Known about the structure:
Elements: H1 2-28, H2 32-65, H3 74-90, H4 97-104, H5 106-125
InterPro entries: ATP_synth_I, ATP_synth_I_Bacilli
Main location: membrane
Organism: Neobacillus rhizosphaerae
Amino acid sequence: MPELQLMFARQRRWMFSLLSIYVLGWGFTSYQSIFLGLVLGTSLSLFNLWLMVRKMDKFGDAVSQGKKVRSLGSFSRFATAALAVMIAMRYPEHFSLITMVIGLMTSYIVIIIDFFYFTALKIHKK
């Protein structure tokens, strides 16, 4: 599944770019709790993306070998989201809960943008 690894590398670059913008926003603006919530949510979103890619690799290997597959790891991704909510609720003076939730959704937004961008790029090359 080299295509999956290439997609993950592209998406990881997008996520790190967004994280660097959020860190700059945290450092240079007065909206520190908003940007820190985005940093927390996006960091854990990147972790969830990595978990999902790792599970999909294992899933592909198991299917090609004819083995049975247990799960794609939804519980671990939900647990990560619950951890983020617990951190944001424990320290509301540092983290904005709303922007933390937006940050958790960042990987899905990046996946959608990456899909449309490279689909349009493939169509344009033909």
